[in-house]
Amino acid sequence: MLHIVEQHFPESEEIPIDTIAIKEAVRKLCERNACGYYGKNWACPPALPALDEMKAAFARYQRFALVYRVYPVKSSWDLEGMMTAIKDFGDRLAAMRDDLPPDLDHMLLGAGSCLLCPSCSYVDGEVCRRPDDMIVSLEACGIDVISLMKVNDLPYYAGPNTVTYIGGLAFNPKS
Ligand code: SF4
User: Fold this and answer.
1) Model pTM?
2) Which phi and psi (to 5°) does residue 25 adopt?
3) Which protein residue's CA is at the shortest distance from atom 6 of ligand 1?
4) Looking at residue 1, what is its pLDDT?
5) What phi and psi values does residue 99 have, to the nearest 5 degrees?
6) Is 163 left (phi over 0), alpha (psi -120 to 50) or beta?
7) How far is the CA of 43 from the centre of ligand 1 (A)?
8) Which of 108, 115, 129 to mutate to test the pocket of ligand 1 (most atoms within 8 A of CB)?
9) Quick one: pLDDT at residue 37?
10) pLDDT tens readout for residues 56-102
11) Low-confidence residues of the chain: pLDDT under 50
12) For 87, phi and psi rounded to 5 degrees?
């Protein structure tokens, strides 16, 4: 199974799932709305379940493959470059999901808000158009991604003019 992950994300590592800490403080950061998606996207708070539900969802899984990818950008203000990069990251996650065994018990996590539609239906008070395709970010689950990388000895910062996006796959091995 991990070979499928590696095909899509050469930079991947299985990490102990108990190193994933879900913290209210991370959710609180979302409320500051630095990204502009708080309250505007089904894949972001407050549309998402409370963190107790997130913890219960993670507790169902035994293993976790963390995936990450470093992208070059022109500068730390290169929003267009960052959007192109995060779109590629989401496309890779979706392609990986398509290749997973259909009966694999899993939960896929990504980075950032859901960008599948030009405008998210959340702002119109309508249901998500593609709930089966939507991928929620690690951060929106209350996970401090930088700490998670550090505690697992993985690189988060790849140097100036780069951006690193991180996601993961929680899964139960097939018996
Ligand atoms: S699939 Fe569309 S409607 Fe659903 S969360 Fe993503 S952008 Fe919003």
Assistant:
1) 0.92
2) -60, -35
3) 114
4) 80
5) -90, -10
6) beta
7) 7
8) 129
9) 92
10) 999 999 999 999 999 999 998 999 999 999 999 999 999 999 999 99
11) none
12) -65, -45
List, in order, residues 6 or more apart from 41 with CB less than 8 Å away: 47, 113, 114, 120, 122
CA distance linking residue 18 with residue 97, whole number of Å: 23
Cα–Cα distance between 15 and 155 in angstroms, integer? 14
Is any atom of ligand 1 closer than 6 Å to the C-beta of 40?
no
User: Hunting for tokens 């899993």 — which residue is that?
Assistant: 106
Nearest Cα residue to 47 out of 153, 134, 106: 134
The per-residue pLDDT for 148 is 95
Residue 23 has which token pair?
Answer: 């913290």
For residue 104, which of 158, 169, 171, 156 has the smallest C-alpha distance? Answer: 171
Pocket test for ligand 1, best of 41, 44, 48 (most atoms within 8 A of CB): 41
